[in-house]
Request: fold
Amino acid sequence: QVQLVESGGGLVQAGDSLRLSCTASGRTFSTNAMGWLRQAPGKEREFVAAISSSAISTYYRDAVTGRFTISRDNAKNTMTLQMNSLKPDDTAMYYCAACPGVPSSSVCIRPSEYRYWGQGTQVTVSS
Reply:
């Protein structure tokens, strides 16, 4: 089992940057594919970015490609999401999540694939 805690959210203006962090407890972090997902008010939770357990593979939703970068440090049990050129449409609660049981080079892109979730960190981008 993996316990996840997010940090780094906040209120920023369009064009600004934020760096989200996810800290995991438990010995199995390095064997889980990980991801960032978000949910805006009145909308369904959606995939944002994913990284394989080995960090070899990453994948992004089209709307954030070129602006967001996902990374992980298995030695420190941490994952980050660097978000640049933020837009008002990026406003949402951002969740860190773990997807166990997939090959080390595979990513998970459907919210239903993620088994463990953090409590979320709010990102608000003003225009």
Notes: The mean pLDDT is 96. DSSP finds no helices and eleven strands in the chain. The longest strand covers residues 18-25. The radius of gyration is 13 Å.
